[in-house]
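DATA SHEET
Item: assembly model
Revision: 1
Owner: S.N.
Input lines:
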Amino acid sequence: MSDVVISGTGILKVGRHYSKSLKDLAAEAAFEALDESQVDSVDYVIVSSSLSYTEVGQLGLAGYISSYIGLTGARPLSVEDGEASGLAAVEVATSLVKSGLADNVLVVGVDKLTEFTSGRVYEDLQKIYDSEVFLLHKVGHAGLAGLLMRMYMEKYKVSREELSYWPALMHSHAKENPHAMLRFAIDPSAVEKSLIIADPITLLDSFPLGDGAAAVVISNEEVVKGKGLAKVKACSSSSGLPNPFLQEDPLKIGSLISAYQKLVEMTGIKASDIDVMEIHDSFTITAMMILESLGLSKEGKAAKDVAEGKYGKDSKPAVNLSGGLKARGHPIGATGVYMVAELSRQLAGTFKGVSVPDASRALAVQVNGFGSSSRLVLLERR
Amino acid sequence: MVVEDLSVPAFWRRRTSYYRLVAARCKKCGKLHYPPGAACPYCGSRELELIELKGKGILESYSVIYSAPGESRGRAPIIIGVINMNGLRIVSELTDVFPDELKVGIEVEPVLRRMDEDSNKGIIRYAIKFRPILVSKSER
């Protein structure tokens, strides 16, 4: 079994890249990662994209991207797990390197969310949920979040105001991050006043629609001797019930709890041992559920913790220093790759934005929807 | 209104779960799930029996969707809810109610309602929605 390292990273600013195609975005991120890693061969090109079929009309994407970036002949593999596709791709790449089947794997996460009107994209985003149930009603992707947020507020007597501190914290981080989509600060009071999408969810509880691409080169440590930004300590994942309301407690993410237990069993490392973390805050409520499912906040207390200043850069763990899905942006299939690239830079001390000096452990956390699957990638400083 | 994502065969296959609220009960662990899967998602047993959910439900949460996507925009605001029926929570649309009349804990009942029509394929689609049970003033 080989040690696995992140030997290169590429990150594009999330935004409305009308002048660039999906493949152009992928190429830009891939070249940046390959140039940093300086590897002389790539065995696999793994592409993580969730909406390329509906938004761009392309199947077999990994093969087309391989040749577009001049890696014709590399083994192509497209990976899709809804919103959690990025970490799924990293998990597959890590397994290939760890097992000795590959020395270097290029992972590219890419999605374009601005090719069509937002109405159409929101309709496509609804497909992250169980189509057996949700394709009939066509109520969009924020409806389930609205149901969970109201349940959370009623059960734990949490106010709208308390929940508004999360988006404000995310914007304060994104303001300093050059590749974030929304680089401006907001006051918590602005969240309640913004457009209501699915009451009680407002526009500022939700992520912006933006295009993006990020890439990492995952390598056998021996092959890239002395180089690399971070070590991939472990990957974990779990499937969960098809919708959160089938769980005894819908406000806990069952698949995340299961994936986290596996991670602790594998490594002995707990969430409280982590220095920097990127979590999947697709909505404010998703962030609260993740923080509580990982045991970092007590049940019903995450919003109060955030309002009292927890999870900023001086906390352990510091959470979403990128600005998170909320403000860095959430180019669906690319997001997990952004997380791993950003955290690798945090550990290497090269992240341009709010950073934690001397961070030694980092964790990326993704959830599809509200937990049909959950994924974790644990990184360590080299 | 054109509904492209749900084919005629797919809609026909799902008619019982869409029209009759047919859920599955696991013969081994006794837990219910909806819509029915190929095995129990809780214990993995393939011994399932289909049961029809009946009677009243309790509203456990709701959301009023103002920003409905694409084809549904004309139907906004759309109210959806989490309804607990026979111990099973299902997500469905609510009807015959104004947003300010909603409250967690009220009793609701299923009704068959027209959803929309697919003019390309000539289908008018109906679905189960839930409405608050009417209570006369003297019963309140």
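QC remark: The first helix of chain B runs from residue 8 to 13.
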